[in-house]
Inverse folding.
């Protein structure tokens, strides 16, 4: 079985032109045609008719899974998943560091071809020490769960491939070279990542760069094909 996953920082659906346009993001998501997508910096206002997360789910024909980390009056913000695949269980983890913006991780259990695939989606903080502590928490979770295959993806805000946190993750997952995704119009930094284990399950990995995706957000989507 082969399936496609992606991670995409939506930047609140605000493009490089300063315009907030969820329909533009939805078109990019349809271009990708992934089976499951991790979203970062997504907003939701369930009380209004054109709620962003509901709009994206309806436009792609996917089910939404919330993992919001910030909640104000009428508005939620943070992580989410969109999935065409059957999800048997969801768990949400708090990996926040005291004094910093709240951060979380979504765990989704997928049962595919009699195999269990565990997917973890997250968005790490901006501080070096903050990310170090978050990855410590994250790896304790990852190391404590066994599965046939697993995927870790999201916006890690780490651009140095030799950084200690990335090396710690690389010891546990496939170590394929990741393409740059930020800024979207001229990608220089590898902020977005997809890791897979065991080695060999990851068959392709690329940044989705089109005329539209280079404008719709400040990040390009990162896309991977996985074979079980």
């Amino acid at each position: 079985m082969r399936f496609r996953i992606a991670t995409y920082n939506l930047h609140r659906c605000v493009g490089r032109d300063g315009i907030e346009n969820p329909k533009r993001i939805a078109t990019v998501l349809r271009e990708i045609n992934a089976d499951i997508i991790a979203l970062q910096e997504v907003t939701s206002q369930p009380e209004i008719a054109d709620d962003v997360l509901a709009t994206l789910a309806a436009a792609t024909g996917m089910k939404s899974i919330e993992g919001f980390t910030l909640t104000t009056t009428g508005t939620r913000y943070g992580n989410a998943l969109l999935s065409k695949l059957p999800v048997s269980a969801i768990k949400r983890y708090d990996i926040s560091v005291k004094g910093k913006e709240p951060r979380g991780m979504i765990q989704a259990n997928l049962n595919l071809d009699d195999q269990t695939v565990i997917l973890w989606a997250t968005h790490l903080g901006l501080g070096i020490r903050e990310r170090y502590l978050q990855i410590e928490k994250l790896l304790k979770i990852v190391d404590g769960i066994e599965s046939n295959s697993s995927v870790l993806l999201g916006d890690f805000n780490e651009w140095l491939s030799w950084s200690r946190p990335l090396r710690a993750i690389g010891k546990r997952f496939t170590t394929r070279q990741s393409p740059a995704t930020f800024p979207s119009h001229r990608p220089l930094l590898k902020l977005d990542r997809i890791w897979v284990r065991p080695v060999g399950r990851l068959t392709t990995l690329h940044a989705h760069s089109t005329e539209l995706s280079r404008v719709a957000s400040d990040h390009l989507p990162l896309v991977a094909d996985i074979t079980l």
User: Anything to note?
Assistant: The mean pLDDT is 93. Residues 128-143 form the longest helix (16 residues).
